[in-house]
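Q: I'm teaching a short session on how sequence maps to structure, and I want students to see two examples side by side rather than one. Could you give me a first protein with its sequence written out and its structure tokens following it? Keep the formatting plain so it prints cleanly on a handout.
A: Of course. Example one:
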Amino acid sequence: MSFFDKIFGGKEENPERKSFWKKIESSEDLSQAIEASYHHRIAIFKHSTRCFISTTVLKNFEKEIDGLNDKPDLYYLDLLEHRLISNKIADDLGIRHESPQLIIIEDGKVVDSSSHEDISVRQIV
């Protein structure tokens, strides 16, 4: 990664996600996540891998999650790699697209959504 990419948010090289994330990489993955919301509250973190702010927010959120004894059901979406799924989330759930974005879903419906500095683990626990 170049110096400017580090400052201005170039694409992450070999991003390692924490083990608690369940990746959403297909419409089927999204359907399974929504189905899980009928059993317990879930969260989807939409992340832009080219955005320094999104990366910072994601790292801070992961630190918060690491501090929990019981980890909630968390889903991760690389919205640059899976733009169509990101659009599907906005359309199907009637929510405005933002990045970074944490969407809390319960019983198949959005119960909370936040972006940027408003993203916090308190929304899901």
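Q: Perfect. Now a second example for contrast.
A: Example two:
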Amino acid sequence: MESLNAIESFAALSQETRLKAFRLLVQHEPEGLPAGEIAKQLNVPHNTMSAHLSVLSQAGLVVSRRQSRSIIYRANMSHMQVMIEFLVHDCCFGHPDVCEPIASSLSSCSSLINES
């Protein structure tokens, strides 16, 4: 990931509604949610939510597909992985002990997934 792509992605998440929308979509993986349902759950007007989803989409954080009359949004989990790797890339080079707490917290996510 290039620095400019990372900046765009992190900037997209630096707004409260967009961050909430992205986290909501992560919770609803892999099926995703219709745009209207995202707006409803976050108590945001539909047109405002549409603008926020557009920013997230342009940053590569969400993907969408048309299903009948609805647009279903999903979190782009592979992009999230690339962002996390971008953040910790230099951390482990020569200093794996510094990154161990981060790696442990991420591995605890996979154990939670395996439990459900």
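Q: What should students look for in example two?
A: Point them to this: Strands lie at 33-34, 62-67, 70-75. Also worth mentioning: The longest helix spans residues 96-115.
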